[in-house]
Amino acid sequence: MQNSIMNEFFRVKFSSICFISLAALSCSGGSNHSDENPSGSQKEPIGVDQTRVVNTTSNAFSSHVKNLTDLERIRTFNIGDDFFENPWIEKTSSTELRDGLGPLFNNNACQDCHIRDGRGHAPGDLGTDTQFDFSSILFKAIKTEIDDQSQANMLAGVLANVGDTHVGPQLQHEAIFNIKKEVSLNVTYQYHNISFEDGYTVELRKPIWHLTSNYADLGYDFDHDTVFSARVAQPMIGLGLLALIDESVIQSLQDVEDSDGNGISGKANRVWDAIQQKTALGRFGWKAGQPSVRQQAAGAFNNDMGLTSEIFREESCLSHQADCLNSPNGNGDSLQDYPYEVSTTVLDAIEFYASHLAVPKRRNNDAADVKAGRQLFINAQCIACHKESYTTIDDANFPELSNQFISPYTDLLLHDMGEALADFTLTGGAGGADVLIEYQATTREWRTPPLWGIGLTKTVDPEASFLHDGRARTILEAVLWHGGEAETSKQTVLAFDATQRRQLLAFLNDL
């Protein structure tokens, strides 16, 4: 019954636009520009990567992979795009396929966090139009004083964390009608300058987050031991390709004890795969806390939008949130025969869409400044974490993504980025180097973010900002916030003169 209902919905919705959009999308790959090769030749072997597209517009992150040509699969991509882009609403009898939002949530549409499938942003400064814009950032809330068994379960990869007693593991700052919002949010910034050896200065800003529990009047304030973790939405491109990097290759990149003495370790996060019901390699999210694109999507539906699915079937209401517990949900609609709000068919389409969003081709990788910048990137040992290239494994479910030579510039491992980028407490301190916050990830550890597409970030959304909490307004600011395992690399960059800075940024902006 579920499939017949969805098919009818899709037939009506897409019958008038399908053939026009399919013709346009199937040509989205454009011309065959070259891409980088780790051998240093800068020329892409012919036919090795068939997934990248040529697109330098504000929709640069919204094309499907170039080699997706089967009309039925493109139709599935379009269906996923529709459910990704359009808002969900609270329980209603008139919109049964897209209802059930909340009762607590952060946003009502995936696209409103991942703006045009791109990166989110931190709120603006005091007095700016975006001062209270928390639409594409969220906060995890994790207790640090936990029992030994819970800590053992986190280390074993079967428990993500223990959430704050009064608001749970994630703050929801929005709610449907007549439901009490969990928190009120605000931010101020502290500014300081950092100087290069030649005297060139860059202004950096540090966010000071002001989080207020809306349950304080009921005696439910935040726990004294809660550590908060700010997370801006990450770009959606290339996720399916990252999912097909051989796990053994990622594992081989670990150097937890820094056996080579270069100051860079890197470790894999082992997390709970709720679909397979076993531990797995974490690949997605700022702390590498999700094992697959499908579970990442289901987790976002559940935590960010208050929508249940076959993977996460419970609302995020706590025992003292009576209005939340008693609110209507989208389960059990007259046309549905499944006990959750996001149908399997919709989740299938979202997974397909997220997996097949293409990475834009590079624009000027043969330019002299870009080549020189790449060598500077290597010389500064940035390449030690931002690993350049892989070949994806073969997967019958994702034939277009299989056996592709890709250059994401990530090792998908956790790295200690230093105290300045650590998660925070409301007293102003950081959580500490050994405090677990997401499986084996500590407050100071972050998954190496892929760099592909980073040069088009501001083209896709001029408000987009960088690093996990969006504090960096430019790529250079993001580089200069690096610490911990990346401290030596940052110091190398700080020795660059004006020409070298230009070359490094030319390379990064070409990715």
Give a short overview.
By secondary structure, this protein is α+β, with helices and mostly antiparallel strands. 26% of the residues lie in helices and 14% in strands.
Keywords:
alpha+beta; two-stranded antiparallel sheet; 15 helices; 26% helix
In DSSP terms (H or I, runs of 4 or more residues), the helix count works out at 15
What is the domain tally?
1
Number of strands: 15
What series of H and E elements makes up the topology? HHHEHEHEEEEEHHEEHHHHEEEEEEHHHH
Low-confidence stretches: 1-6, 8-47
Order of strands across the main sheet: 3-2-7
The share of residues in extended strands comes to: 5-15%
Q: Radius of gyration, Cα only, in angstroms? A: 22 Å
* Distance between the ends: 45 Å
- As a percent range, the share of helical residues equals 25-40%
Structural class: alpha+beta
Structural description of this entry:
The protein contains 15 helices and 15 strands. With 511 residues, it is an alpha+beta fold. It has one domain. It has a 3-stranded antiparallel beta sheet, with no helix packed on it. Strands 1-4 form a two-stranded antiparallel sheet. Strands 5-6 form a two-stranded antiparallel ribbon. Helix 2 crosses helix 3 and helix 8 crosses helix 10.
Topology:
Layout: H1 2-14, H2 18-26, H3 71-85, E1 104-105, H4 110-113, E2 137-143, H5 148-156, E3 170-171, E4 174-175, E5 183-195, E6 201-213, E7 226-232, H6 239-243, H7 247-252, E8 270-273, E9 278-281, H8 293-305, H9 322-325, H10 344-355, H11 368-379, E10 390-391, E11 405-406, E12 414-416, E13 436-438, E14 441-442, E15 445-447, H12 457-460, H13 475-480, H14 487-494, H15 498-510
Antiparallel strand pairs: 1-4, 2-3, 2-7, 5-6, 8-9, 10-11, 12-15, 13-14
Helix pairs in contact: 2-3, 3-10, 8-10, 11-15
